[in-house]
């Protein structure tokens, strides 16, 4: 118990001392072969107390940020920095919003994972390449035996799907778990890319 407390306070210290650099605000825009989705912005949509999913919002999307760590380098030469995707939750009369990181809600019954913003710490990193497309670095390949970790690549397993998270039914952005060949089990899912556009 004692050593656990020491380790967790060290972790907290690490999280507190790593200096975060926040990007300029940007919009997230859907690119898809499905015409009615293509060009729509994403918005943080209420899905519970201080919990937001990313839903389709026509041209009234919200602003997002990428928090990177000072001094960190891209794992692939010339590619984007890894960082936390952030949305600011406005709070009633408070002058400063709550900075919420994105993490995935994973349900063992489905391979479709839902990005959510919540007021907590998140280890989930994303990246934007020079094409401004949202991706996630892949460091680990267990499709081979023994599993390998000597090649880094970027995955973009994004889909817009009809979801029902705690009673909130929206068309939301989702991530299909697995490598680039993974297919969503939710039949409503439509393949998309997510593009960053600085405002
Ligand atoms: C992102 O970075 C800003 C600026 O350093 C900081 O105020 C904010 O708390 C960070 N948000 C998260 C979720 O880490
Ligand atoms: C989705 O949520 C609503 C509201 O709680 C509920 O009425 C509906 O039955 C849910 N649908 C599914 C498929 O779970």
Can you characterise this structure?
It is built from one helix and 15 strands, in the order H-E-E-E-E-E-E-E-E-E-E-E-E-E-E-E. It is mainly β and 199 residues long. The protein has one domain: Trefoil (Acidic Fibroblast Growth Factor, subunit A), CATH 2.80.10. The model is unreliable at 1-10 (pLDDT under 50). The structure holds 2-acetamido-2-deoxy-beta-D-glucopyranose (NAG) (2 copies). The site of one 2-acetamido-2-deoxy-beta-D-glucopyranose has 3 residues, from loops.
Explain briefly what this protein structure is.
With 199 residues, the protein is mainly β. Helices cover 8% and strands 40% of the residues.
Q: CATH topology, anyone?
A: Trefoil (Acidic Fibroblast Growth Factor, subunit A)
Which ligands appear in the coordinates? 2-acetamido-2-deoxy-beta-D-glucopyranose
Please provide the ordered H/E string of secondary-structure elements.
HEEEEEEEEEEEEEEE
Beta fraction? 35-45%
- The whole-number mean of residue pLDDT values reads 92
- Per DSSP E runs of 2 or more residues, the count of β-strands stands at 15
Low-confidence stretches: 1-10
Which structural class do the helices and strands define? mainly beta
Q: How many domains, as an integer?
A: 1
Largest sheet: 10 strands, antiparallel
CATH class group: Mainly Beta
Task: Work out the radius of gyration.
Answer: 17 Å
- The assigned CATH architecture is Trefoil
Helix content: under 10%
**Overall spatial form:** globular
> Helix tally?
1
Distance from first to last alpha carbon: 48 Å
């Amino acid at each position: 118990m004692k050593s656990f407390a020491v380790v967790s306070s060290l972790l907290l210290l690490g999280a507190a001392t790593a200096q975060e650099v926040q990007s300029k605000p940007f919009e997230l825009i859907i690119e898809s072969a499905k015409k009615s989705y293509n060009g729509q912005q994403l918005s943080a949509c209420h899905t519970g107390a201080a919990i937001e999913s990313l839903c389709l919002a026509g041209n009234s999307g919200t602003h997002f940020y990428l928090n990177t760590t000072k001094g960190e380098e891209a794992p692939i030469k010339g590619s984007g920095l890894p960082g936390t995707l952030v949305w600011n939750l406005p709070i009633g009369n408070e002058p400063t919003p709550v900075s919420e990181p994105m993490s995935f809600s994973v349900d063992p019954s489905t391979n479709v994972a839902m990005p959510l913003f919540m007021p907590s710490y998140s280890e989930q990193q994303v990246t934007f390449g020079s094409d401004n497309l949202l991706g996630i670095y892949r460091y680990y390949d267990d499709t081979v035996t023994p599993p390998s970790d000597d090649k880094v690549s970027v995955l973009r397993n994004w889909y817009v799907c009809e979801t029902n998270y705690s009673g909130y039914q929206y068309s939301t952005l989702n991530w299909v778990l697995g490598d680039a060949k993974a297919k969503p089990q939710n039949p409503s899912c439509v393949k998309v890319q997510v593009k960053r556009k600085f405002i």
